[in-house]
Specification:
methyltransferase activity, SAM-dependent_MTases_sf, transferase, 8-stranded mixed beta sheet, 45% helix, 454 residues, alpha/beta, RNA-binding
């Protein structure tokens, strides 16, 4: 952990002292993310683990400001260098303005340290007074606001995603591009999935526990837990394995797979097992909690499989077998399975809403380096599919290079497979390739294609 930089500024009020302290900590964490290129959530978690002095409000100010800086970094970096102290405070105050953070006393302290002019402060005050607590401003309106505060600067919505992103994910429609940027500039709710319990009962119990839970219109077992932070260890349904956190876009994958109660499936890149648990839950729903089917879950990471094992035990699920993928040889039998899910390693551009730092610490290579690996995993995994059964390919990327192009390359080399038409759960459009865009149902981004072995 790097040492926090020291400031020569003098704070004269309690709010300014706390704002100055927050600034020092946030700057240290911000620089560490950019320097090490480690995920911001991991760096923040490590910091709070080592510095237990921070209360819940301190943690919220530090964490939300840090992630807000990355969310708007495409604009904020145009103000100047973050290594200039005055500019850094201008960035902090602008972040609070764009995010509409409730800690106005700290934001005003940052404005003071930034030495904003009376004209700049007048623009900010007018906006704050007109906005109140309603967060109804669009990305275009926020870009105009920032341009008015920092005259001579011109920011526009497309800059909130890096230039290389538009190269690997070309979007011809200006309307769709704006919708994507708008979604990427906001945080999705916490989506979850109910297991071995009626969904309406789960929602009712969660609401009684003070959680902003609500039903989902798309899937019978999906629920929203609102946007507020939740300590899952305090949630009884989670501890009992009856609620699992899983983004709505991720839940699309299991619903495209549609595993039947008596089928044998293989989750080839299971990680910690979110989709494995969903597949098993869907199997149990198919025959009212009595299933002869099973799922084999594989990964190259031992710790991820250990976490999957814990989650399966917590849910009380049988029928799940762990098989580490140790070599080029398959950990399952060839031409044997009813279904194979390849949730391939990818650039994760579809998850940028939750991880805004990744768009600035990654570069185009995070996309360009993946297709060869993805095609290799898909081709190897396909050997386990028996005739008449299904192969499902998915990523949490929005780039066609990792999605349609990989599937097309696979099909050109494997004539015994063909695409199956699926229904997009949010748009109801039928297609052989389903891309879930973040703005369609307030979720992450995802891609999925289903194939059958002829």
């Amino acid at each position: 952990m790097p040492v926090a930089p020291q400031s020569n500024l003098i704070a004269t009020t309690p709010a300014q002292k706390r704002a100055l302290s927050y600034s020092t900590t946030i700057k240290m964490l911000f620089d560490e993310v950019l320097d090490t290129k480690m995920p911001a959530d991991r760096i923040v978690a490590n910091y709070f683990r080592e510095h237990k002095k921070h209360g819940s409000k301190d943690r919220r100010v530090i964490r939300e400001t840090l992630f807000g800086l990355f969310r708007w970094w495409g604009w904020l970096k145009q103000i100047g260098s973050q290594h200039d102290e005055q500019t850094w405070f201008a960035m902090l105050s602008s972040c609070a303005l764009l995010e509409q953070h409730m800690w106005r006393n700290f934001a005003e302290a940052w404005q003071h340290f930034a030495q904003l002019s009376p004209e700049q402060l007048a623009v900010i005050d007018e906006h704050v007074e007109a906005t109140g607590e309603a967060n109804t401003y669009t990305v275009i309106e926020k870009s105009l606001l920032l341009n008015n505060v920092f005259t001579g600067k011109t920011v526009k919505p497309s800059q909130l995603l890096p230039d290389w992103y538009w190269e690997v994910c070309p979007i011809e429609s200006a309307e769709q591009q704006l919708k994507l940027v708008e979604a990427m500039s906001s945080r999705p709710p916490i989506w979850a999935r109910v297991q071995k319990l009626a969904t309406d009962k789960a929602v009712s119990q969660l609401q009684q526990d003070g959680i902003d839970a609500s039903l989902c219109e798309y899937f019978g077992d999906a629920i929203s837990l609102g946007s507020k932070s939740i300590n899952l260890n305090d949630v009884k349904l989670y501890k009992n394995g009856q609620v699992e956190i899983q983004d709505l876009a991720s839940q699309v994958i299991g619903n495209v797979c549609k595993p039947k109660a008596n089928e044998q499936w293989w989750d080839t890149c299971s990680g910690a097992g979110g989709k494995t648990l969903q597949l098993r839950s869907l199997m149990l729903q198919d025959v009212e909690n009595n299933s002869t089917g099973s799922i084999t879950s594989s990964d190259i990471r031992t710790k991820a499989l250990e976490e999957l094992n814990k989650r399966a035990k917590r849910a009380g699920f049988d029928g799940i077998t762990i098989a580490k993928w140790k070599s080029d040889n398959l950990p399952v039998s060839e031409s044997y399975l009813d279904g194979v899910l390849v949730d391939a390693p990818c650039s994760c551009t579809g998850t940028w809403r939750r991880n805004p730092d990744m768009r600035w610490i990654d570069d185009r290579s995070c996309v360009d380096d993946k297709p060869a690996l993805q095609l290799d995993i898909l081709s190897r995994s396909a050997k386990a599919v028996k005739t008449g059964s299904h192969l499902v390919y998915a990523t949490c990327s929005l780039s066609p290079l990792e999605n349609e192009a990989v599937v097309d390359a696979f099909l050109s080399n494997n004539k015994d497979f063909s695409l199956v038409v699926s229904t997009h759960p949010f748009t109801e459009q039928q297609s052989e390739h389903i891309t879930v865009w973040p703005y369609e149902a307030n979720s992450d981004g995802m891609y999925v294609a289903k194939m059958v072995k002829k």
